[in-house]
Hints:
By secondary structure, the protein is an alpha/beta fold. It has three domains: 2-36 and 129-177 and 267-357, FAD/NAD(P)-binding domain (3-Layer(bba) Sandwich); 61-122, no CATH class; 179-261. 30% of the residues lie in helices and 31% in strands. The chain is built from nine helices and 18 strands. The strands form three sheets. Strands 1, 2, 8, 9, 10, 11, 17 and 18 form an eight-stranded mixed beta sheet that branches. Strand 9 (143-146) and strand 10 (149-152) form a beta hairpin. Helix 1 packs parallel to helix 8, helix 3 packs across helix 8 (310-327) and helix 7 (275-281) packs across helix 9 (337-357). The longest helix has 21 residues, at 337-357. It starts with a strand and ends with a helix. The structure holds flavin-adenine dinucleotide. Flavin-adenine dinucleotide binds at residues 9-15, 30-32, 36-39, 41-45, 139-140, 164-168, 170, 183-185, 205, 216, 218, 257-260, 304, 306-312.
Amino acid sequence: MKHFDFIIIGGGIAGLITAFHLKEFKTLLIDEGILNGGSGAAGAFLFPKISKHSSYTNFINDAILESFSFYENIGINTHKNGVLLLPRDEKDIEKFKEYEKYIKLPFEKIKNGFFFKDGGFVEVDEVRKKIEVPFLEGIVKSLKKEKNFWLVNNEFYAKNIILATGYKEFLKIPYINIRPIWGERIEISGIWESDLNIYYHKNCSVAEVGEKLRIGATHKRNCLKCHENIEEANELIKKAKEIIDIKKYKIENIKGGFRAASIDYFPIVGKVIDVYKTLRIQPNIVKGELPKEIKYIEGLYIINGMGGRGFSNAVKCAKMLKNYILNKEDLGKIDTKRLFIKWARKEGEKFLRDFKEN
Ligand SMILES: Cc1cc2nc3c(=O)[nH]c(=O)nc-3n(C[C@H](O)[C@H](O)[C@H](O)COP(=O)(O)OP(=O)(O)OC[C@H]3O[C@@H](n4cnc5c(N)ncnc54)[C@H](O)[C@@H]3O)c2cc1C
């Protein structure tokens, strides 16, 4: 029986970068493939977010800057040509005017939009090749706690498990409500007219990559039946035509996938809370009392809810998770705690009742 310090379940960008950060330990990443899930469908654009000043926007933009350094240090091309964020409609033009004073990153105003030199993308294939971690091809079907170890698939022991399973919730954790959002990335060949030294983002992201145009967007909530299809690809091209004059095109490939979003859009990172034990010692949490003590499931962690910014958020979140595990550094807004508190106030009473009855 093989023993590990960390087994990471899920080889999307969140699991991959987490495994990379924990390489100094005996670590194993398990999935059917690396960057095959939502991550495999991503345009993997790295670009700032604009909004009224908010902690969420700050988080996203810090993550963008960190991700450029992270990928570049490993020797991954970030194709940093800059991105032009364009307003979608008249209403957006007004909003953009309001947002201007909150923008902290350097920008230029172009065509009612904002051009950020800190905009680029990474190639999923290059990320897969250059971030090397110990990997096992397979699916985790069973996870049991035996004394101080987790037994994975009755085959491996691990002191710690990290769940990085994206929209597929391998373990149902009551307060973690992952919302799947479907989207597609397509590549077309053809004839178009535009200044494509830079990338664009409006209703979708558009970049010229080699001879092709890459277009990506995620948009359909809770559509588990969604699958790659030509109608949706044509819809994407329609959106891209609002940005670029595409005169002729042929769809070269379509890649669809789900990204995982949390209910408040912040990523979900940290140690998994033992809901029953925590509510038992302080039942008034369900009535709005703040938890004085949280009981955790020893050796069980999560990194999920990367949203539409997985290729930058995962860089920041994986580093924060490592610092949390090794140095108990605070996770702030991304800590699982905030979701637990919200859930407990709404569902905790019912949960305790049902738990006792069963
Ligand atoms: C069309 C599209 C376009 C996007 N564009 C961008 C973009 O431009 N920029 C950006 O930053 N982000 C973008 N995103 C979002 C980004 O792709 C996601 O945020 C990111 O991929 C999430 O990574 P993840 O590792 O959390 O999940 P995933 O990539 O979904 O990985 C989860 C993995 O867990 C595995 N898994 C689940 N259960 C088990 C199990 N029991 N055993 C083993 N493995 C298991 C799955 O097989 C999967 O590979 C886009 C997403 C889509 C769909």
